[in-house]
Design brief:
The complex is a heterodimer. By secondary structure, chain A is mainly alpha-helical. Chain A is 77% helix and 0% strand. Chain A is built from 27 helices and no strands. The longest helix of chain A is centred in the first third of the chain and has 44 residues, at 96-139. Chain B contains 18 helices and 13 strands. Chain B has helices at residues 13-16, 43-46, 48-51, 55-62, 91-98, 121-131, 147-151, 153-158, 162-175, 191-204, 221-238, 249-255, 273-278, 283-288, 300-303, 326-336, 355-363, 367-373, and strands at residues 28-37, 65-75, 80-84, 106-111, 114-115, 132-135, 209-213, 241-246, 258-263, 266-271, 319-320, 340-343, 349-353. Chain B has a 6-stranded mixed β-sheet with strand order 6-7-8-3-9-10, sandwiched between helices. In chain B, strands 2-1-4-5 form a 4-stranded antiparallel β-sheet. In chain B, strands 11-12-13 form a 3-stranded mixed β-sheet. The chains are: A mainly alpha, B alpha/beta. The A-B interface holds A 260, 262-273, 276, 280-281, 284-285, 287, 357, 359-363, 365 and B 99, 101, 124-130, 132-134, 136-146, 153-154, 156-158, 183-185, 187-188, 201, 205, 211. Chain B: Belongs to the ABC transporter superfamily.
Chain lengths: 694, 375
């Protein structure tokens, strides 16, 4: 699921730790790994294996030429899917499954969203703003401490800006969707987390499910729900709930499992029963983790609520989507800014609450926590009475808005004319895009398609085997074969070439920036706030500026993917290089190693596991956005999915979605960082891998 | 040489300890206790051939590890019973078997004559709630609770009302010297203070016996000393039975009335500090106690010789009670320049220590002869 928002990274890290066994040593990173002769021999063997598979593929490409997946081995999914769709449309209002179950679900969800929206509208803008601001203040502990005041200030500024931008009604709809989606995800995640945390069997059963969900791009979740519910609010919400629940479940389980054994043993030694242990020790000890999970669930829900506008969720996402579709960058950007503001408000508020839990101060008793809450409720009621009831203030007044759409569109036009091409020496953004397409993307795509399927399959198998032994090899080959069977071989390879191109850029920039930040504290200090903001934004948002710069096409999708994946890669790299054992580094320094030698001989080899994790994260994140790039002309699988979603043409959309899932599995399995890569679930170090907090 | 306060000084031990056995049943009576970890662990104690194997061979043969092997001892009411051994010797497992935090594989554990292993869940919970309270090496405090609520935790589990348990917690906080810190969180306390909370939490339930599992190992040496004093003080004031696990010999000698020395899961020797230091059961124990300043541990009771014909002249002789440690006897002999007489409370002369006897204790030459003369 990390496929999608970066906050989910945290939940992902422990997951990879428990991934398929076996050390990972892809050819490139392997050379630095080991000094001992035995290890070196083993490494040599691996390199030969990869080289052999690659040569085989190359030879196949040259000798056999263009050998795509044989047409007779494909299975036509379109016809049965179309039939299923037709059947569903005919029976949606009459079949018992719908009458007694699914329609109830969607009706309840719809009315819940309506109620939430009615409450928000009923509060009026003064009420909502006061509630959001003071809620943030209370979450950060209240009082006059700086953290509480800045959090409240952020909330106030965010809502004022949303109003000023004229996005108030759309924002309220998005918020109403969020309220329902987050509530449902949190409850679902909590229940699953309790099960996985308390029962070993449930934990074992759920872990692979969560692991797989983490690598699937958000897009893949939409289709099945459209199939069942048609287009509208309900499928969007259900997709969001399913998408956003895992971090909560995962971190709840983690918190329950890693609770201080001494404290639990103490509870037992004092004669506490199982329920007493759970309620007085285990759950309270897991609380900081659970709040972190809630934070991630909220951020993922926001990301998905925005994306789900494609299937009729409405709200801010709809504005972005509309703007992108009609090339109205100004409109898209206005809504995008509003989304980012909401994201920042939610993130800062929940993060402040989490931090307060983790570092409880002296005066944070129950009474001290209740007071700010009471103040918040009282002030909200007062604002409602004064604003809505007495003065009749409902939605944000029209007179208080100003549109930035026109100036933005003018700027974009200017940029296209002046920066697009013909800038002396550097060329221009459009020129770059053309050149990158011509010299990197097209050769990559043509190269991949030139490799015969019977050579590509073993190559995937070898890479999977090196990353995670037999199981990964089989999964990788199975996924690739499934793509072929679905009849989407060429399109998938096209998407794959985009992913690889984007990954190349991401890793080049990400490793360089990560290593530089690890070695220069000042640089890290400067980067940190930038990365924080970047990691808060939903993936959809990244498409807006790149379309302005690069026009519609593959390059826009790739650039968005790079920007989206970079923060995580930079963070993990920095962290990996940083956390190298200080004594080893000191030893090498005492032997007179130069900084370059230290980096090459000590820091990079010891950070190898983290670097591999960065690659894995990069792949998964890049894929998510490359696929969403179907919206802005990325073509291939992403386009098919979008087309299928918008037209309700499931015969096209679902196979494409399935192929995306397969591609995600394939890429994840061949880049598994292995067991030694990430901290085990017990160490609790990984949860912040993707994020830093001030 | 006179190192008062520098090293274990069990000077008044003799009068504190040794409540006459037989008066009350032992607090804990452990017989033939085994704890084996691993597949089909129960076969190891049953099979004499397996039971006799050394640890490494047992693991190789069966995949099992015997953490506690065939251990028997009694903890008498009011005494501080120390279990000492290096890490991995099984002492922490042993203490957990007493309240079945770890389920023993074989053997018998009785508390006040009642079979602990036969207890049902309810009875066992009752035992843990009211009769035996434990203090942990890593404190086991709940980070989200204040000091006061941590101390009151055991009472909360018992189901006491909030007002009652808070009042009791305040009382306990005062007793262990945490007054004024009741509203802090554990993270805001030093290590020593955190362990005071742990001790107060155990004391709060007013247990019959307190189990200390390496309580001070995680603390700095100076603080450790303070905490040992604290334990000695609590013991003096309350006379509570204690089982104390430690890997630190000086700590064992300092707080223990009797010490059980463990190695590889078995008990090598049980005895008073003086017996352990003065008459090590084997080379392992001898090695262990080699650096202990013997004059601080061994008393004149074991160092004296019978009154001989040359001791008739009592002029200027110092009179020492039998529990005087050798270091103090040396001071007395040096002061008077004459052998000192060891007398009991009634003034009866039990024996004589002269500089030869005292020097041989210091030099470590006394052991063989002691075996003959000691009571």
């Amino acid at each position: 699921m990390t496929g999608t928002t970066k906050p989910s990274l945290a939940a992902r890290v422990p997951a990879t730790a428990a991934g398929p066994d076996g050390p990972a040593a892809p050819a490139g990173g392997g050379g630095v790994a080991a000094k001992s002769a035995g290890a070196a021999r083993a490494l040599g063997g691996r390199v030969y294996l990869v080289v052999a598979a690659a040569l085989f593929a190359l030879a196949g490409a040259v000798l056999a030429g263009d050998a795509a997946w044989p047409g007779s081995w494909t299975w036509d999914a379109e016809t049965p899917l179309d039939e299923l769709n037709r059947w569903l449309i005919l029976n949606r209002d009459s079949h018992p499954l719908f009458l007694y179950f699914l329609l109830h679900l969607s009706n309840n969800v719809n009315s819940a969203v309506d109620t939430a929206l009615a409450v928000l509208q009923g509060l009026g803008w003064p009420g909502v703003t006061v509630a959001a601001t003071l809620g943030a203040w209370a979450a950060a502990g209240g009082g006059t401490r700086p953290r509480a005041l800045t959090t409240a200030g952020t909330a106030l500024a965010a809502f004022a800006a949303i109003g000023l931008l004229g996005m108030w009604p759309h924002a309220m709809l998005t918020l109403a969707l969020m309220v329902v989606a987050v509530t449902l995800s949190a409850v679902l995640g909590l229940l699953l987390g309790l099960a996985a945390g308390l029962s070993d069997r449930a934990g074992r059963a759920l872990r692979p499910v969560f692991d797989t969900m983490q690598v699937l791009p958000a897009f893949a979740y939409l289709l099945p729900f459209v199939l069942l519910f048609g287009i509208g609010t309900a499928p969007a919400l259900f997709a969001t709930v399913i998408y956003a629940a895992p971090p909560m479940a995962r971190l709840t389980a983690l918190g329950l499992r890693e609770a201080d054994p001494a404290a639990l043993e103490c509870a037992r030694s004092l004669g506490a029963g199982p329920w007493q242990r759970l309620l007085t020790a285990r759950l309270p000890l897991a609380r900081p983790r659970m709040l972190l999970g809630l934070n991630q669930t909220i951020m993922m829900a926001l990301s998905m609520v925005v994306i789900a506008s494609i299937i009729g969720a409405g709200g801010l996402g709809d504005q972005v989507f509309d703007g992108l579709r009609t090339q109205d960058i100004g409109k898209a950007l206005t809504a995008g800014i509003a989304i980012v503001l909401i994201a920042i408000w939610l993130d800062r508020t929940t993060a402040a609450a989490g931090e307060r839990l983790e570092h409880p101060g002296a005066g944070t008793g129950r009474a001290a926590a209740a007071l700010p809450l009471a103040v918040t409720v009282a002030a909200t009621v007062a604002a409602w009475l004064l604003g809505r009831v007495a003065l009749g203030l409902g939605a944000w007044p029209d007179g208080w808005t100003f549109s930035i759409a026109d100036p933005v569109n003018d700027t974009v036009d200017w940029m296209v004319v002046n920066l697009g091409s013909g800038v002396p020496l550097v060329g221009g953004t459009l020129t770059w895009a053309e050149n990158f397409t011509l010299w990197v993307l097209n050769p990559l795509r043509d190269g991949l398609t030139a490799i015969p399927w019977w050579a590509l399959l073993p190559l995937a198998g070898v890479l999977g085997f090196l990353a995670g032994r037999l199981r990964s090899a089989l999964t990788a080959m199975g996924a690739l074969a499934a793509i072929g069977v679905l009849g989407l071989w060429d399109k998938s390879l096209n998407t794959l070439s985009q992913v690889l191109g984007a990954l190349l850029l991401t890793l080049l920039i990400g490793f360089a920036a990560g290593i530089a930040a690890a070695r220069r504290p000042l640089l890290e200090k400067l980067l940190r706030p930038v990365l924080d903001v970047l990691q808060t934004m939903p993936q959809f948002i990244y498409l807006i500026p790149v379309v302005a710069l690069f026009g519609v096409g593959r390059i826009a999708a790739i650039t968005a993917a790079v920007v989206y994946a970079l923060p995580a890669v930079v963070r993990i790299t920095t962290q990996g290089v940083r956390q190298v054992d200080a004594t080893v580094l000191e030893a090498s320094r005492s032997l007179g190693a130069t900084p370059w030698q230290q980096l090459r001989q000590v820091q990079l080899p010891l950070a190898r596991a983290q670097l591999l994790l960065a690659v894995n994260q990069g792949v998964v994140l890049v894929l998510a956005v490359v696929v969403v790039g179907g919206l802005v002309g990325g073509g291939a699988l992403g386009f098919d999915t979008v087309y299928g979603l918008q037209r309700g043409d499931l015969g096209v959309g679902l196979p494409a979605g399935a192929a995306i899932v397969c591609l995600g599995l394939l890429l994840d399995r061949i880049t598994q960082p292995g067991r030694d890569a990430a901290p085990g679930p017990g160490t609790g170090r990984g949860d912040r891998a993707g994020r830093s907090r001030p | 040489m006179k190192a008062t306060g520098q090293h274990p000084l069990p000077r008044q031990r003799a009068d504190v300890a040794a409540p006459e056995p037989g008066e009350r049943p032992p607090v804990f009576a452990v017989r033939g206790l085994w704890k084996v970890f691993g597949p089909r662990a129960e076969r190891v104690p049953r099979n004499p051939a397996l039971a006799a194997l050394p640890a490494a061979e047992l693991t190789a043969r069966t995949g099992c590890t015997a953490a506690v092997r065939d251990v028997s001892f009694e903890v008498r009411p009011g005494e501080c019973f120390v279990v000492m051994g290096l890490s991995g010797s099984g002492k922490s497992t042993l203490v957990r078997c007493l309240t079945r935090l770890i389920e023993p594989t074989a053997g018998a554990v009785a508390m006040d004559g009642e079979d602990v292993l036969a207890m049902d869940k309810e009875r066992l919970r009752e035992l843990r709630r009211h009769r035996a309270a434990m203090v942990f090496q890593h404190f086991g405090l709940l980070p989200h609770r204040t000091v006061r609520d941590n101390i009151a935790y055991g009472l909360q589990i018992q189901g006491l009302s909030r007002a009652e348990r808070r009042a009791r917690a305040e009382e306990m906080a005062a007793k262990v010297g945490l007054t004024g810190l009741e509203h802090r969180r554990p993270a805001q306390l030093s290590g020593g203070q955190q362990q005071r909370v742990g001790i107060a939490r155990a004391l709060a339930v007013d247990p019959e016996v307190m189990l200390f599992d390496e309580p001070f190992s995680a603390l700095d040496p100076l603080i450790r000393r303070d905490m040992q004093d604290e334990v000695l003080r609590l013991r003096r004031e309350e006379g509570r039975t204690m089982v104390f696990i430690t890997h630190d010999l000086s700590e064992a000698l300092r707080v223990g009335d009797r010490i059980a020395l463990m190695r590889d899961g078995g008990i090598v020797q049980i005895g008073t500090p003086e017996e352990i230091v003065g008459r090590p059961a084997d080379d392992y124990v001898r090695d262990f106690v080699r650096d202990v300043p013997r004059d601080q541990v061994i008393t004149v009771r074991s160092a004296m010789r019978p009154v001989g014909p040359g001791d008739a002249d009592r002029d200027g002789c110092a009179e020492l009670p039998p529990e005087t440690v050798v270091a103090d006897a040396i001071a007395a002999v040096a002061r008077t320049g004459r052998p000192a007489r060891v007398t009991d409370r009634g003034g009866r002369c039990l024996g004589v220590v002269d500089h030869e006897r005292l020097l041989s204790v210091v030099a470590g030459l006394d052991t063989p002869e002691l075996e003959g003369t000691a009571t």
